[in-house]
Structures are given as C-alpha cells and as structure tokens.
Amino acid sequence: MQSFRAPLASPLFRQTPSFPFMHASEQNQVFAIIDQHATRAHEASAAWAHSSPTVRSGVLRALADALDARANELAVMADEETGLGIPRLTGEIARTSFQLRGFADEVVAGVPYVQVDDEAIPGPPPSGRPRLTRVMVPIGPVAVFAASNFPFAFSVLGGDTASALAAGCPVIVKPHGGHPRLSIEVAKIAAEVLRAQGVEEGVFSMLDCDMSRDANIHLVKHPLIAGVAFTGSYQGGVALWRAANEREIPIPFFGELGSINPVVVLPAALHDDPVAPAKVLAASMLQGCGQFCTSPGVIVVVDDQRGREFVSALGDSLAGQATHRMLSEGIRNGFEDAVARIKANANIEVVLEGNEAGAGPAPRLFQTTGAAFIADASLHEEMFGPAAVVVMVPSVDAIPDVLSAVKGSLTVTIWGGDQDNHENREIVRVAQNIGGRVLFSGVPTGVAVTRAQQHGGPWPASTDPKTTSVGYAALQRFLRPVALQDAPEWLLQRA
Ligand code: NAP
C-alpha cells in the first residue's frame, strides 16, 4: 500500500562508491532506483492531494506516536552517530513529534484546504465579475534533503517532511550521511505507520544517503519531482538550487543555506552588568558545539568601557569550556578551515583561542572593527562551530551599516533596544531588512514551532525569503493557488 521499500533490500542501501568513483553501470542503477521512487510518488500524488483531513492528520499523528514510542532507543542510536548527547536528542524527538502533531492540527483546522470565494456580481467590468474561488493545490512530489545537525527535527520525519505531507504532497527523502543507521530506522518506522494507516503507495519513501552528487542532481532534475526542500551548506544548497532552476521546467527550491546571526549588544543591555549577558551568549554559542543554523556568529558591541568588559567576560565564559565531538570529520575540518581563514585576516585580533577540553574543538573568539567588517566580505562567512567575531563599533550610529553588510541572516538579536528613539528604530529597520527573525531578548538558538514563526531570510539565509522552514506556515511552500472561475458546485464541494 505504501511506497517505502525495506532499505537493506534496495540496491540503494548497498554501500555505493561515491562520486567521482562510481562506475557508469552503478550510476545508471542508482538513477533507475530514483526513477522508481519518483514514479511511485507521482502515482500516489492525486490520492494524497485529495486525502481527507481525517486521513492526513491520522497519518501525521501516528508518525508522532511511533517516534515517541521508540524515543529512548532512537536517542541512543542518534547519539552514537552524531555525538549530540542523549538529553538534547531526547528533546529533539519530543520537538519532532510535537511538530508532526501540530501539522495534524493545521490539517484538521482546514489550513491546506482553505478557499477564498468572491461571489459573482452581475454587470459589466470592472465592478461586474464572474464567481471566483481561489483554492490551494499541492504541488506534487517533494524531494527532501535531510540536514546533518538535527537528526530528527530536520531529518527523515522532520519539519520539511511533515509540512509537505500536511500540504498533501508525497515525499522522497535523501537522508544525510551523518546518521545513516538512524535514518534507516526512522524510515522503517514511517513505512510501518503508513502501511498500518493504509496509505497509498508512494506517499513516503527514502533513498540511500550515499548516492553520489550526480544522483542528488538527478533527483532534483527528475521531471516527476515538483519541489525540493534542503538544509545544509551554502555550496551544496547552491549546487542543488542551480539544478532546480536549470531544468527544462524549473521547480521551487526551498533551501536554508547558512547564517551568521548577528547579536547587537547595545550599551543599555550592559549598563547594570556586562558579565551576566556575556555568560548567556557564551552558552548559546556552545550549544550543540555551535552546530546550530542560528548560532550567534557576529556580535556587535560599542567600543566603550562596558563594551570591552562584556567582550572580556565573553572570552572568559568561553575559555576552557569542553565541547562534544562535531557531527562529522568533514564538518570539523570545515570549521577548522573557516577559523584559520578568519584568524589569518590582517584585520582580525584573537580574543580567545584556548586548548581543547573535550572531544570537540576549543571555542574561539575574534575581534575586528566595524569599518573592517563592512569592507571585507570574507569576514561575513559562517564558521559552523563554536566561534564568533566581535565587531567593535565607535558608536550606536555605526550599527546599521554593520548589519546591512551582513545581507541575509536567519536571525538578528538586539539586546538593549527597549527605548523608542531614532537609533533603535534604525537598527530595527535594518535588522528586519536582513533577518527572518528579530529577537529583542534571549538567544537565537532554539526555534519555537508556532504559526507566527519565521525561519528563513534573505539570501544566503534562504533561497526563498518569502517562506519559512520552521513553524506551521512551512506547509504553504508546497501549495499553489488556483482560481476557479464559475466552477460547478460539485467541484467546490470537493475542493
Ligand atoms: P552539505 O554538505 O550541504 O550536505 C547536505 C546535502 O546536500 C547532502 O545530502 C549532500 O549530499 C548534498 N550535497 C552537498 N553538496 C552537493 C553538491 N555539490 N551536489 C549535490 N548534492 C550535494 O551539508 P552538511 O553535510 O550538513 O554540512 C556541511 C556544512 O554545511 C557545514 O560545515 C556547515 O557549514 C553547513 N551547514 C549549515 C547548516 C545551516 O543550517 N546553516 C546546517 C548544516 C550544515 P551527500 O550526501 O552526497 O554529501
């Protein structure tokens, strides 16, 4: 009844040599398997698009229940592969099932089925008009590229999968190679749930995590794939975004690529105590060993006595802190390369470069001036790990230009902006120009799943700044409006 095939029985789940070492015959075999998945997803599209709220929400809730039922065992498996720790992973499973149930609630509330009806008005235009009913149509099969850093919440049954299923689109997951065993286990759970729910074949399936880069491109370019959701690196995201746009018929590509998440620490935030905010920020930088897409990477501080005390306290709070191992050797190497590039920049001063105290890298803190940061785009690159650049500015007036230089970011945090004055208004205006979420207290790490949430932002934070990949608005990515003009009543009842 459903599309998922036991992974170990599929040729895709054999260890396949990676590009560029894959032989043409193996490559063709992989392409053929992608074709099968896409065909099955396409065949399931119409029925799933027309599935009732009861059926669709029932599947989402059953997936949530199945994850919760196996939470302890899955957290252990995820920890073995990612090193993220049991408490964090247990919390992430709870968030993932919460989000599946939340999308089920949206389905029951009728969000994906919403209609806007304009009654006919007799007479000539412009006031006279036919009856128009705007309906939302699921776009069709969606390829989901799972992320490395959230093995549940942004992976096989994460937000992209949940939102696409809620919208009425079948999903084909390309799992991340950082947690292959876990991905296979979660996909098996999904397959059992869908089978038990009697869902049409092809609604959910998963490919191999190690298919070759060419195969990833083949998936995105497959004529039966109608949209792509991606979380990962700028380079990987851009390669796949290009592929989506180079197709004979381009398709929507919803990529979350990279973000440096500026934190603006205004003098008002340091007036009473510069040390406590520094400790809070250090804890945020260290969360998940800095492998959060919302990790604070740029800290903007006014160069006065309190500002300097804050930077010193931030260095002290980070110094000697043990971090856990990073998600993969590739990510660790990428972090060390990024840190080395920043350190080698002539305009950078090292605030902290400690020794490793755990299995992960030592936290790093660098400092530069506002003028240097604005002039040098290489200082805006993401260091995916526990590191940040402090940008010292001579006065609050200089902050908007520093933020403008960042261009696109998932978040901008402003501490101490409570007063309504010209400077604060300017900072908030620019923060809204570059950021998807603007925070006035707390830290950017941790993204609540709600209706109002926005997890995106101008390029390079996301490839489509009008959309979000977290929160219930995420399902709108996979719906397309159609206006029905003078539609017969039977169709409107069914739509
Ligand atoms: P990644 O390298 O971008 O990989 C993500 C997915 O894209 C994988 O399935 C990968 O397939 C595929 N891919 C990557 N490059 C491709 C290409 N040129 N052509 C076709 N497919 C491609 O991301 P990652 O492995 O998670 O982490 C690497 C870096 O990404 C990190 O160091 C960090 O800088 C960044 N990152 C950012 C965020 C964020 O939210 N901002 C989150 C995670 C990671 P394969 O399995 O074939 O490699």
TrEMBL record:
E.C. no: 1.2.1.26, 1.2.1.4
SUPFAM superfamilies: ALDH-like (SSF53720)
Annotated ranges, domain Aldehyde dehydrogenase: 34-421
GO molecular function, a single term: aldehyde dehydrogenase (NADP+) activity
InterPro entries in alphabetical order: Ald_DH/histidinol_DH (IPR016161), Ald_DH_C (IPR016163), Ald_DH_N (IPR016162), Aldehyde_DH_dom (IPR015590), Aldehyde_DH_Superfamily (IPR050740), ALDH_KGSADH (IPR044151)
Keyword terms of this UniProt record: Oxidoreductase, Plasmid
Keyword Cytoplasm in annotation: no
Pfam families assigned: Aldedh
EC class of the enzyme, as a word: oxidoreductase
Protein name according to UniProt: 2-ketoglutarate semialdehyde dehydrogenase / NADP-dependent aldehyde dehydrogenase
Organism: Cupriavidus metallidurans (strain ATCC 43123 / DSM 2839 / NBRC 102507 / CH34) (Ralstonia metallidurans)
The organism's taxonomic lineage, starting at the top: Bacteria, Pseudomonadati, Pseudomonadota, Betaproteobacteria, Burkholderiales
